[in-house]
Amino acid sequence: MPTHAPATGDLLVILRHAPHGSSWLREGLDAALVAAAFGQAVTLLFQGDGVLSLVEGQGPGPLGQKGTAATLDMLAMYDIESLFYDQVALAGFGFAPQQLQLPATGVEAGAIAPLIAGHRLVLTF
Amino acid sequence: MRYGLLVEGAPYSSQAAHSALRFATALVARGHRLESVFFYHDGVYNAARLAAPPQDEPHLYDAWCSLHAEHGTQLQVCIAAALRRGLLDPREADRHGKSGHSVESPFELTGLGQLVDLGQAVDRLVTFAP
Fold this sequence. Notes:
The complex is a heterodimer of chains A (125) and B (130). Helices cover 26% and strands 21% of the residues of chain A.
């Protein structure tokens, strides 16, 4: 069960898509980075297939796309360190929290509404 | 209230743009102010000036333009998302050596920073994603 207080901030970016197969994740992360560069306190929530974005060891693949692992590594430089993921979704894919590329906090479904309520602006990708 | 919309779905590919437009129409009918519609991800295709849908379907491009003409709503398009999808205004077309342009006024190419500004400026920013 989550024991932390719900995170708050200016902007919550919800990422629902896996890192490969579409540009959703990349364009969602771009929006988060720009907002952070504009001085907004940004929180990320990885939900559904989006939790796969956090799994470590992913390369760009043969399609010539840049991949998003490098962008995730840059988040800390932009002071985006408030990262949450849907822990049921992660477990559903057979991954453990130890396999994540970045330190992130697992949340249960019940903690997502307070997370959304704690941010004035929410962007969904 | 002052509203902004974020549209992430391409026209005719998903319901997102249709729903966003219906929401926009309802907003202004109820006396709210719609400051801007920001097009991002595949939503940038809504700005394609050459869109020619069948006559018995809603003409989304014309409807966005009417929204601008009648209510002063800004139509902002993420420039990075647009350029890689072949959506260029005359200036960008010239800069990239292209023989024609696919975006023109009242749509304007702009940066993601404008989306952040919009989010701060309005009371509600509503996302329409596929």
